[in-house]
Design goal:
Two copies of one chain form a homodimer. Chain A contains seven helices and ten strands. Chain A is an alpha+beta fold. β1 of chain A pairs antiparallel with β1 of chain B, so a sheet runs across the interface. Chain A binds a DNA duplex (27 and 27 nucleotides) through α6. Chains A, B: Keywords: Hydrolase.
Chain lengths: 229, 229
DNA sequence: ACAAAAGTGTTCCGGATACACCCATGG
DNA sequence: CCATGGGTGTATCCGGAACACTTTTGT
């Protein structure tokens, strides 16, 4: 069996990141326009290869950082894709990750440099290789996650209004939610701090800003509280 | 960027299978006793390496077949594990799969030959490398799956009693279920065929046998029916 | 006749949903 | 003073949970 190690075929291990952002209205993904062959000029996910000295999570971090300048981003492994000819250049296995980022914080210059652009899910162009499937899987994973835990605080700025939070949920779940029911549920979770501050940009009256209370959330989660919206 | 292909490090890609079975009482997993170094004599999952001419699903199939003699088994990719020193011999990434098999159908001789043995989840020994974590993840995935679709018909013989089905659910979910509520729910799903046959082994009265109706299930699933138990 | 498991319905409660009006403010 | 979005509570409904007795039959 030891021989099996040496006798076995090594492969290139790629990573691809589905990067989600939320621009106060819609869920978006960040795509790059390839300026190299194969598939030059087509849109794709940002990707890279695993290096010897890092594990997959670290590689995903590095790749995400390269494009956005962001560190300590929410990243989760999605699935591994291995169709033999998925990459026409060489046999590669790709491990897909998805990231949730605050769309206001990424480094504009960097993403310009990579020819990257934000697309709303519905208007995203067709992607190279098997990237379309990856995106589809990522969305359904995000939707699932939403049904199990209060998701999306990574996608919002630190201070946000209830309206924004609701729009985020609506755009992840692809359905309209009732304002009162939504607020009741969120309040029942008791994981937000209502600030004295108001966001005056959206109306004359202004709407209160909230912050996510990470500690409270952690405690509730440990107690097995159900955060379903 | 093309250079990146050649400049990047290739790695060994391993697969490990968590094989679930159900022996009418308990959920079990199939483990093998290693008869080679490293970690000779310790228990582990069955594993293998990806070959050039196959994708991951095919490799998992092949590995499972090698141990159990079974084909066309329910197999699902779980997660990829990549800690740098997870395998002391050489850097390997492992993609874990889990399988659901009918415990009565596997090839006894084959598994003896590999020094494999069924363990109930609670009594399983500690495993090599990161295999314990894989098993933990697999169980929680199975539990999740159970909450979304009628699971476990792969784990049961073609004909089974309601009692058996209930025990299976109980052992996956780790909780006692109410007999009447369980039967009502399963019947409401309307995906079983009640046979005229009875299983007389468990009682004097005998209990009716049921079969899973794959076609009905597929149709209901397509209609978005909710199979939560 | 009795032991042992199979089989069968109804009530009750809580959480989810549907729904409409007043408030505060800047122009 | 009015237009705009912000904020709030209640009645109803449905599905899940709790619950106990009768039936069958081999010994």
């Amino acid at each position: 069996m030891l021989d099996e190690y040496s006798a076995s075929d090594k492969v290139l291990l790629a990573l691809d990141c589905i990067i989600f952002g939320f621009d106060k209205e819609e869920l978006k993904i960040l795509l790059i326009k390839r300026d190299f062959e194969p598939e030059k000029g087509k849109w794709s996910l940002i990707g890279g290869f695993l290096k010897k000295e890092e594990n997959l999570d670290e590689a995903a971090d590095r790749i995400l950082n390269k494009l956005t300048g962001l560190k300590n981003v929410y990243l989760e492994q999605l699935h591994s894709y291995s169709k033999i000819d998925r990459d026409p250049v060489e046999r590669t296995i790709s491990v897909a990750y998805y990231a949730l980022i605050n769309i206001e914080e990424h480094n504009e210059k960097l993403i310009d440099q990579y020819g990257a652009k934000w697309f709303s899910i519905s208007e995203a162009p067709g992607l190279i290789f098997d990237h379309d499937i990856m995106v589809k899987h990522a969305i359904s994973r995000l939707r699932y996650k939403t049904s199990k835990e209060p998701v999306g605080f990574e996608l919002l700025p630190p201070k946000f209004t209830m309206k924004q939070l609701q729009k985020l949920y609506e755009s992840i779940l692809c359905e309209k939610l009732d304002k009162r029911n939504f607020i009741n549920k969120i309040n029942a979770m008791d994981i937000l701090v209502k600030l004295d501050e108001k966001d005056m940009s959206s109306s004359r009256k202004g709407s209160f800003l909230y912050q996510f209370d990470h500690d409270k959330y952690k405690r509730k989660k440990a107690d097995g509280f159900d955060f379903k919206v």
